[in-house]
């Protein structure tokens, strides 16, 4: 019913993913499998909802209607089983800007932020840009996948009372982990013991593979809600990143009021009118599109797995539980340090360098599979051709 297989050219739209090659590098014909947005046309109803608003010729300052809050409240209830009240929501432009402002507000200059690499680079770059030190509690890896290191994490908090905030990536980018309620509660309970704030970034919550289940941090016991903030957004799920809309859910009244005031003063809560229209439509009408999109992504992961097993079996890959991001380990092939860069310049395919997610992950590359299968296939063929040509296979 939906045309996920259809290639929709994004060239000459100032698109971050596709347009930088000619503009910035004078490179032609590169397949981009890096940044986390999708090459799928958005749900038709969203386009119609925005077109309807476009008909009115004045696009001035606009407040969120009750429908915006209601759409979020209903989606969170229906999809994640959590009860949210309007007065607990603070609307924001982007999730990254949201945690930037929260870190600035909650973490004093001599305090620190703890993160779990490998992790989405702004998790450590954003605190650093605010001159807050970052403590790393790496995820552990074994034959069953990636896991939180609860003991190591607690050790950090015990040793260093200046750690005051934990940035949780839930589901986790780039490993694709969906955490269980037991895992979420355990890590949040540790934070509670050491009076550490928790921000749970749940932007990938609705891109979940068959038989997997996202558990919002707000499913943890209500006694922990006072020091917890959940960040959500329809932008990853519905491919709307350019519209800049997201939200924070804050159960602690005083904190909610303080953050709402900061968001207003800084312009963080000043949202694009089309963002409002898109969010309402996505959350009210988007269930079926989202299901179909996740199915297509899952089939792309299966295609990728088959391709890897057939042509480059030395590369380690497991289909993730959530996200449309594949985290591939090339260590057995002993690829060069500048592998990602050479793939781009010589192989004309761009992946996201693993070292960006933490210095220990230079043998990994992240691949975005949210594209028509033909694009993914061409990208993978180019990676294979480069490896073959340079005798790594
Ligand atoms: C975990 C995570 N948080 C936030 C973002 C970006 O959110 P935004 O564009 O709303 O700032 C991304 C984008 O890839 C992400 O993976």
From TrEMBL:
<dbReference type="InterPro" id="IPR004839">
    <property type="entry name" value="Aminotransferase_I/II_large"/>
</dbReference>
<keyword id="KW-0032">Aminotransferase</keyword>
<dbReference type="InterPro" id="IPR015421">
    <property type="entry name" value="PyrdxlP-dep_Trfase_major"/>
</dbReference>
<dbReference type="InterPro" id="IPR015422">
    <property type="entry name" value="PyrdxlP-dep_Trfase_small"/>
</dbReference>
<feature type="domain" description="Aminotransferase class I/classII large">
    <location>
        <begin position="29"/>
        <end position="383"/>
    </location>
</feature>
<dbReference type="Pfam" id="PF00155">
    <property type="entry name" value="Aminotran_1_2"/>
</dbReference>
<dbReference type="InterPro" id="IPR027619">
    <property type="entry name" value="C-S_lyase_PatB-like"/>
</dbReference>
<keyword id="KW-0808">Transferase</keyword>
<keyword id="KW-0456">Lyase</keyword>
<protein>
    <recommendedName>
        <fullName>cysteine-S-conjugate beta-lyase</fullName>
        <ecNumber>4.4.1.13</ecNumber>
    </recommendedName>
</protein>
<dbReference type="InterPro" id="IPR051798">
    <property type="entry name" value="Class-II_PLP-Dep_Aminotrans"/>
</dbReference>
<dbReference type="InterPro" id="IPR015424">
    <property type="entry name" value="PyrdxlP-dep_Trfase"/>
</dbReference>
<keyword id="KW-0663">Pyridoxal phosphate</keyword>
<comment type="similarity">
    <text>Belongs to the class-II pyridoxal-phosphate-dependent aminotransferase family. MalY/PatB cystathionine beta-lyase subfamily.</text>
</comment>
<dbReference type="GO" id="GO:0008483">
    <property type="term" value="F:transaminase activity"/>
</dbReference>
